[in-house]
Amino acid sequence: MNALYRLAATIETRRGADPEASWTAKLLAKGPEKCAEKFGEEAVEAIIEAVKGDTARLTAEAADVFYHLLVMLAARGVTLADVEAELSRREGTSGIAEKAAR
Asked: How many C-beta atoms lie closer than 10 Å to residue 41's C-beta?
């Protein structure tokens, strides 16, 4: 199991945890909209670091983006396996062709 799957599993175990003791539980308790908002904030922070060219900060922000993406997905019942299956479905398809098929 890779780090992303371990993180996704940890997020699932925190779903029923005390929101006062777990950041993940606190986010999930606030609902999907708050989880999406936090994901957006982290994505913007990653963009800022990418533009600035600070690779260490970009790496740290990218980790935050992955975490908050997984929390947002969990809030809507979408698993990492679901996303992986969609990526596999698209594999070998031109990005231009895939976008045109939507």
From this structure: 13
What are the tokens at 82?
A: 């679901």
- Upper half-sphere CA count for residue 36 (Cβ side, 13 Å): 4
Query: Hey, how many other C-beta atoms are within 10 angstroms of the C-beta on 61?
Result: 20
Tell me the HSE value of 4 on the side-chain side, using a 13 A CA sphere.
Answer: 13
- Which single residue is written with the structure tokens 């398809």? 93
pLDDT value at 73 more than 80: yes
DSSP result, 37-98: HHHHHHHHHHHHHHHHT-HHHHHHHHHHHHHHHHHHHHHTT--HHHHHHHHHHHTTS-HHHH
Q: What is the mean pLDDT of residues 59-64?
A: 98
Q: Is the pLDDT of residue 94 over 90?
A: no
Q: Where residue 99 falls among pLDDT bands split at 50, 70, 90?
A: confident
